[in-house]
Amino acid sequence: MVSFFNWDGDRLAAQQxxxxxxxxxxxxxxxxxxxxxxxxxxxxxxxxxxxRLTVDLYQPVSxxxxxxxxxxxxxxxxxxxxxxxxxxxxxxxxxxxxxFLTAADQPPGHVWxxxxxxxxxxxxxSAPQGSPPLFKSGDSDWTxxxxxxxxxxxxxxxxxxxxxVDGEPITAFQRAAIMGDVTSLxxxxxxxxxxxxxxxxxxxxxxxxxxxxxxxxxxxTIAAAGVSIGAATLYDRQGPVxxxxxxxxxxxxxxxxxxxxxxxELSFRRAGA
Length: 273
Prior knowledge:
The protein is mainly beta and 273 residues long. The protein has a single domain (5-102, 126-271), classed as Acyl-CoA thioesterase, double hotdog domain (Porin, Beta Barrel). Helix content is 15%, strand content 40%. The protein contains three helices and 14 strands. InterPro entries: ACOT8-like_C, Acyl-CoA_hotdog, TesB_ACOT8-like_N.
């Protein structure tokens, strides 16, 4: 079965799904977010659920072997905080933190929340073990055609992800973490392609997603002087799950033109297949 990583002895080895479309010798943010979420998840206390994940992507990670570590910062009766890091060649390349919370009754009363009109494709459009990603621009139909979505319209994507690690079922938290990095694609893919790379990713969850499919819809993009903030709603077939926010840096010299670059298109098809 296709996966982002498989085992090479006691270390994870990157597969094609985990390779960056920007540079074939580096890992993509999707895979990095996924394995850091996996490491953090090993420290989740019984009865707690992931509520917030933040990943700092401050150094490139090559496709060679890497090490993961994690530490419990604090565990209380209702809140637990865990840090994790990814190191390579003796140097820390990325780090992450997670907040795990226990469930409780909702407080009384009503608060304002926006009406959510989240686009969902028909049932049966994706396989549980992973399928090519679908995209939607503006009022157009869902399609896996990248060229048809290279425009300045508001974007959404619908994805069923393969396993993160070969031989392990992908967890709901891992799915959410991987989709968090995809926020940059739905928020920063425009009429000339994609020209921003993530420097950090935050996924805030009110609940874990249900089922093998996840949607992501762009909500806002705010950019100036080569720095952009993208925010998107993460959702499943039952409704909103949480919010994803990325801070991204201009990478205009390596802008990816999905309408013209078949290799980049193939890479992203694999990344969501």
